[in-house]
Amino acid sequence: MTTTNRLARRSAALLLALGLGSPLLAGAETLRFGGNFTDDHSSSRAMERFRDALAERTDGDLTAQLFPNMQLGGAGENVDQVASGAIAGTWIGISYLSRTVPELEALSLPFAFASREEAFELIDGEIGELLDAELADKGFTALGYMELGFRHVTNNERPLETLDDFQDLKLRLQPNQTHLDTFRAIGANPVSMDINEVYGALQQGVLDGQENPYSIISTKRLDEVQAHLSDTGHFYDFIVVAANRDTFNRLSADDQQAVREAMAEAVAWQRQTAAEEDEAARQALIERGMQFTPIGDETRAALREASQGVVDDLRDKIGAEIVDRVLEELAS
């Protein structure tokens, strides 16, 4: 597809998202959601389930229209669109909201989560309620948290077997200061970049590598431009479904309940599906030619020790209370 065609397609999608591209059914209301995940990612498929369940619960009086795969731009653009009310909501990696709500970085403590079940217990409890309130203060309503998953480093330079192997690697990370500080602490050279630029930057050698869950590495076909795969699992990452607060609050109480119930159903399905697909994605990457090198216990301990100063810095940045509450929850 040429650049002109891509721009034309995106412009047409944006017109639709703004309600300018087609007439709406009389009496019906449509909530438009933009996302940067590919159509086949479990989160996009979960949003389709949300769309169908919402229409069923409201007899079609309230519907959802979905624009996955960066049809409305990258994740940062989607956040801006929701904040302005141009679209009703988005489903994105939670880091893309951390500049607006710094407290979300408390979920990004390096090497903090032992399992996805531990992560879900945290976000579904009091910590999640606290972060929901912070999002609301900034104009967003959190509708649910899906799995993005444990993040793992890939690169084109060498297998990652020791702490020294991370030295000076130019790695793409999400726009999250804690993520960036963690990789600086272990000796890498991290660069913040939107996901829609990553494939080209890797292909052109602008970057040595990147880090993502296996599902994203696979669906974004990053194995085509990366040689080495690891299992660093340095952060566990969430996908937040965030709506414009005022748009959501304008809905009737019944419609708000329908949205939340439909989303809860979609989130439950996605979490289970993402867990099932995680190992399958790793295996697919290996079969497609990536060299997989697992991180040994000694190296993992060295990475954890090298990055612990990031936790103290985060206490200073967003407040010790939220950071210590997360650590206490994880230790209990």
UniProtKB/TrEMBL annotation:
Region forming the signal peptide: 1-28
Keywords, sorted A to Z: Signal, Transport
Keyword Signal: yes
Coiled-coil regions, chain positions: none
Superkingdom of source: Bacteria
CDD domains attached to this UniProt entry: PBP2_TRAP_Siap_TeaA_like (cd13603)
Entry similarity comment: Belongs to the bacterial solute-binding protein 7 family.
Protein name as catalogued: TRAP transporter substrate-binding protein
Lineage, uppermost ranks: Bacteria, Pseudomonadati, Pseudomonadota, Gammaproteobacteria, Oceanospirillales
